[in-house]
Amino acid sequence: MTDQHPAQHPDQHPAQHPDQHPAQQAAEHPVRDIEEIEESESGTGEAPAADLLAAEPRRARPGLLRWGAAALVLLLTGAGAAFAVTAPERTDLPGLRTPNDGRYAFAPLSLPPLPPGRPAFTSAGSAGHHYADLRQLLLPMPKGATPVVLPGRGAGNPAPTGASPSAGATASPKPTATPSAPTTPAGSPTGARPADGLVGKVGCTDYAARDLHPAQVTALLTEAACRSAAERVWTGPDGTRAELWLLRFGSGDEAGAFYLKAASDDPIELPGLKDVDNGFVQLNAMTASALRATAKTAGPGQDPVGRVAYLRVGDVYALVALTNPKGVPAQAFRQVTMDQDDLLQ
Q1: 10: exposed, middle or buried (C-beta count within 10 Å: 0-12, 13-18, 19+)?
Q2: pLDDT the model gives residue 200
Q3: In a domain, 197, yes or no
Q4: Which of the pair, 157 or 173, is modelled with greater confidence?
Q5: Which of 320, 191, 185 is nearest to 254 (CA)?
Q6: Burial of 245 (0-12, 13-18, 19+ CB in 10 A)
């Protein structure tokens, strides 16, 4: 009887014979099959190039975009708010407006030009002389003020063309006017024309006429050899009348001699002035000053109705007189006096 064997499936490996040698079994199963199995199990095999190219791109994160837009809006809003707060004047902002303490609004101050070759007053070679146009050394009117023309003064002595209303800067290196240095006591009590030939200046006798004792003041001006004078009168927006005078002398000694005697004079409109604390106004160390005020006071602050400052800076004597029937604010008087002193430095 013949032995029958079961049919073997084509994919089925033949059963290993128990007596088969291991080397023979390894020959039937190549090494390459084992390597392929290890690569498939470990996942270290390289993906086909087609799979890399076909990889889906990363999607944008909508949350990140929203946060970036919010940060940009916040930055722009903050910048706009900062500009809106800092651009206007402080006093224009609601809740920050401060009450007016009596000070005036002046245009930026600057020193006038000098004649060619002449030094500034603060220079070592000036010998205490002011060579600039005396009218341009007068403090200009503040904003809102009205000029006052005194009787017999003509057009009120306007400053020459090109003058800069301005204190606190150095003299311009490019002068617009070239007045010569004074050599004779013109503009003196004799009524002669000023030596520097500047038309429109008042004479020294005009200053004497404002005093209760004009003859005595005229004699003082003659003795000290007053060379020229300039004045400016205006009424401020608060109704305060300001009268400013500058007198130029041949030297600081002559100006000082007149200052010592004139600092106790009595203006016609303000008789009976009394001395006040000279530390009330902090002036430059180069300035000799005397302050006086009326005994009569008025207004809510009981301010004097008249305040006067006498200054001597080098060869120039200055008078600052402020009057107001409702009282002259202390801040206004201090401001005008200090600004006029700055222009003379």
Answers
A1: exposed
A2: 44
A3: yes
A4: 157
A5: 185
A6: buried
Does some domain include residue 218? yes
How much is the pLDDT for 174?
32
Token digits of residue 337: 């006096």
Beta pairing, strands 316-323 & 306-313: antiparallel
Cα angle value 68/69/73 (rounded, 5°):
120
3-class SS at 231? strand
Task: Please give the Cα distance from 169 to 172 (Å, whole number).
Answer: 9
pLDDT of 244 higher than 80 = yes
Structural contact between residues 102 and 309, judged by C-beta atoms closer than 8 angstroms: no
Tokens of 335: 């401001």
Report if residue 216 sits inside a domain: yes
Q: Which residues pair with 263 in a beta bridge?
A: none
Structural domain of 264: 124-343
Tokens found for residue 176: 């617009």
Number of domains in the chain: 1
- The packing angle between helices 214-224 and 252-262, to 10°, is 160
- For the sheet containing 274-275, what is the strand order? 146-147, 226-235, 241-249, 316-323, 306-313, 288-293, 274-275
| pTM (two decimals) | 0.61
DSSP for 202-215, written as a single string: PPHHHHHTTBS-HH
The number of beta carbons lying within 10 Å of the beta carbon of residue 336 is 26
**What are the tens digits of pLDDT across the range 4-59?**
555 554 455 545 555 555 555 555 555 555 555 555 555 555 555 555 555 566 66
Q: Is 74 domain-assigned?
A: no
Q: Look at residue 266 in the predicted model and tell me its pLDDT.
A: 81
Q: Which residues are 322's β-sheet partners?
A: 242, 307
What is the H or E stretch that residue 311 is in?
A: strand 306-313
pLDDT band at 343 (very low <50, low <70, confident <90, very high): very high
